[in-house]
Here is the input.
Amino acid sequence: MSSPAVVKEDRRVAERGSSARPQAATARFWRIKSFCRNRAAMIAAIFLSLVALAVIFAPLISGHSPDDADNLARYAPIGTPGYILGTDQQGRDMLARLLYGGRVSLLVGVVPTLTAGVIGLALGLLAGFLRGIIDQVIMRCLDVVFAFPMVLLAIAIAGAMRAGAGTEIISITIILIPYFARLARTATEGVVPMPFIEAARAAGGSRVTIMLRYVLPNVFSPVIVYATTLIGLMIVVGSGLSFLGLGVQPPAADWGAMVADGRVVLRRAPHVTVLPGLVILAVSLAFNFLGDGIRDALDPRTIRR
Amino acid sequence: MGSFLARRLLAVLPVILGVSVVIFLLIQLAPGDTATVLLGPQATEDAKKELRHVLGLDRSLPVQYVSWLGRTLEGDFGESIATQIPVIDLVLPRFVNTMILTFASLLLAIVIGYSVGLFAALRSNSFFDRLTMSITLLAGSAPPFWLGLILVLLFALKLRWLPVSGMQDLAGEGGLLDMLRHLVLPAVTTALGPAAIITRIVRSSVIEALQKPHVRVARAKGLRRKDLIRRHVLLNALPPIVTITGLQLGYLVGGALLTEVVFAWPGLGSLLYDSITARDLPVLQATTLLIALAFVLANIVVDTINAILDPRLREALKA
Amino acid sequence: MSARTAQQMAHQAGDIALQVTNLATRFGSDRRGATVVDGVDLALRRGRTTALVGESGSGKTATALSIMRLIEPPGRIIAGEILLDGTDLLGLDEEAMTAVRGARIGMIFQDPLTSLNPALSIGRQIAETILAHEDVSDAEARRRAIELLTHVGVADAARRVDDYPHHFSGGMRQRVLIAAAISCQPQIIIADEPTTALDVTVQAKILRLLHDLQQEMHASLLLITHDLGVVASMADEVLVMYAGRIVERADVDTLFHHPRHPYTKALLACMAGIEDDRGEPLEPIEGMAPDLTDPPPGCRFAPRCPQAQDRCRAEEPQLRAIAATQEVACLLVQPEMADG
Here is the structure.
């Protein structure tokens, strides 16, 4: 079972991010304004947008193909004309590899988080709202997944299946669902006893309506905040899986695999390892700040006019 | 205390059972048909059917699970597909090595986290504090395996202070000192992420405890700063710190697994990696099961420590 | 007779335990901040209770914390002298001041529910005060803690000394805190709204306890409160504080029967007495306390004073003696030397 300490932690996260009141459009406007005032979060949002654009329009930015191995241009350092970020031990352009590889890495971070978020939110909402047997069954099943260290289970699942980006996505989705479910359940437990829910019940709303129209919007906020921070973390976990060779196979590569590739030439051409790691670090940090910014913007206590 | 532990262990039994089910099911995820893998694609359909029957693979899943569980409880994890060695013999020595790495990393993470965090909290908003916050942010967001390689680049390749990889166990020529030399980089790498998070929680928890009203009351009594910090600040700051430290255990173990691969540390992590590369599923299963069990037990220990520290829960312990 | 002279005379009589002169405490920077204690003088006499009265934000608690030197950044004491038996507390280093706190001045704070450390037994929290100032064994300190608990009215002290704060009610916790504050027989006891957070029935008992202890130890009690009823029953001398300044000082009878400062009069009018005519509405004071980051020129009470004149807004009134036992800081009040 989730230890009492962990439940307390979840409650703190849930309370911090939630704004359990009936939502109003004006309130939402003030929150967007309040977010914009958080400089770190704004910079992070802009940075991530740029990264996303760069990755999508990769062919326009780098003239090279990521698989283009040029024997004459091997081990080129950063700043070499034509290969602005240098090349690796096979003469492939680092910038191109980072951009194309970024497509996979970002996908492996975003897709499982969003998927697990939706599924976990649904499970947690059901468990927290309906209580009883459904709650017990759902929670017991999730407890089993919690018994594993997150990374171990991801590696084991991905390791048993055939390697590839899809495997990574499935694996990470599976391990994330319980975390979202637990958070959503704790948040739901916090919202259900509130007076306006009782009022809705008294007004004769059906259970489904109440759950979807009144409880869900208020559980949404902590889940969104959590998801944003988790995307950054999952990019790191995904790169870890790729580092172990469980992701896209050569010659294709994502950031994690690139770090592994650079291992063998660490002394001679450190930039092959350093660059992809720096990118992972920067993106992960950016999601961190973004998550903080969203959390502060959604927290009714920090709304400033 | 005894009954508290007994109750906790009892409650965790269904979870362990569930864990075993998950691990059993892992095999089912593997692509390909076992009989084909073992006999080769040339084998006849009859030969494969025969093998499947011998291996018990034609029985229903629940039946297979029960028989697998039975064997596992006896310590029979089967044989490694790659080397034919009984899996149990492969796994146990590695377990000890991973324990060494994990404990060393945990110790480091706690020592660094608690001391730096406390220091930063007592001098909050100073240059040191802000520097610490920046460093912990970076360390907590960086991929641990990459950090390990950076450390290798710096300390092993450029500065040549420490060895690049491997491990000398206590029986080797270098003895304890040599093992410690090999332990430094892997332990630091594994510890960095959790240490960063622990530092932050220590800092915020102590700052919060410092602002509690009873701290001012204690100052008004004329207590010396040392006693004040110890009894009235630290004691109250401890519970969330211990909770978070416990939660870091999961990341620590995961980090250790990756670090073992980076540094060729002969533990369960690198065994797991090898088994994946060689598609040696029995070894994969056994390794995962062992790590998961150790983790479950470790969490019970953490919960018990948490309960001991909270005077209100202490009374529940005596019940 | 000026306020200063009166004080000097009393001091020479050897009666004064604590003498505060021109105390000023500021929060924030020199450019942007508020001086929440602005030139406060007070003198505590042995065996006597002095009440410091004022509304929230008037600076009463800040004054007490300044005396104890418990003001923390962004606050700091910017001027003044605090003489305890001839030593200026503001000149002491932190180590010396730690020796004073708890041993020579004891302080009781407002909210007993948050003033005790939930992780330590109450006996420990009393004993640690003793152990911090006297060279005794743990066993001896514990024994004295039990004695003190009994003395402040905690029944079955020997058994309860190892209990934790959450086992006690608010009133009992306050008794524990009082026990800790007087454990080293301090000459001065400062009580900051000691009964505000308690039930009315408990309030009377706690005040009674404080009174008895003070008499027994012949200590000086500085009682901070906003409750004039408490003042009437406990105080010998009253200081009325407004916006960081003392606006009236008088002995308790004079204050209640002949208040001279408009603020004091207004405060008394706010109170509902049992004999009052039920038909008459309570009279609140118009307006709000001034923002001390930008205090009004002249008399700080002028914006709310029903009798304010133009010169009130131009000139700052000083505390002047208008009778033998009364000082007022108001331009409109004339000294009545004839009254004596």
